[in-house]
Amino acid sequence: MAVTGPEIERLIALLAKLPGLGPRSARRAVLQLIKKKETLLMPLAAAMADAADKARICSTCGNVDTQDPCAICVDAARDPHVLCVVEDVGDLWALERAGAHKGRYHVLGGVLSALDGVGPDDLNIGKLVERLSTDGVREVVLAMNATVDGQTTAHYITDRISGLSIAVSRLAHGVPVGGELDYLDDGTLAAAMKSRRPF
Ligand SMILES: [Zn+2]
Question: Max Cα separation, the chain?
Fold first, then answer.
């Protein structure tokens, strides 16, 4: 039931579609925005209009930026021989925040999923194979999530590119930094034991 004007209800309904925000949190957020109209609502509206105008998807790697190709793709200081494949832009940003990868990226836009009806043609895999065939890449790092679908996708890509002379690696699975063995789930502990390496 609407308790306020249609313009405000519309804003609440739109915000409620964001991940992590339900109708209740959206309503609370909008109330806060309106109370802080000058310092929050108006700058936010301007920032959103600006982002809507300038945001682009990189036609090379699938990253989100305000330029195409994106800043990472044109950065000459990056190692062009190592390509890190991720599921989504959020994963690329997470690896960048960690400073974990000095090469370039390729964003798939999801993972293969029989349950959700996602096949290879729904993902950015054709473009990946094209890049690997022409861009002088020597190593591919498959940085998929450690989920069943993520690992299925990693296996599929490995099969697809098996004809190319490119080294394929994947992220290690195991004990997180600062993690205590007693608190880990069985799957993580088993994976850590399986991927153990010389000290
Ligand atoms: Zn790019």
Answer: 65
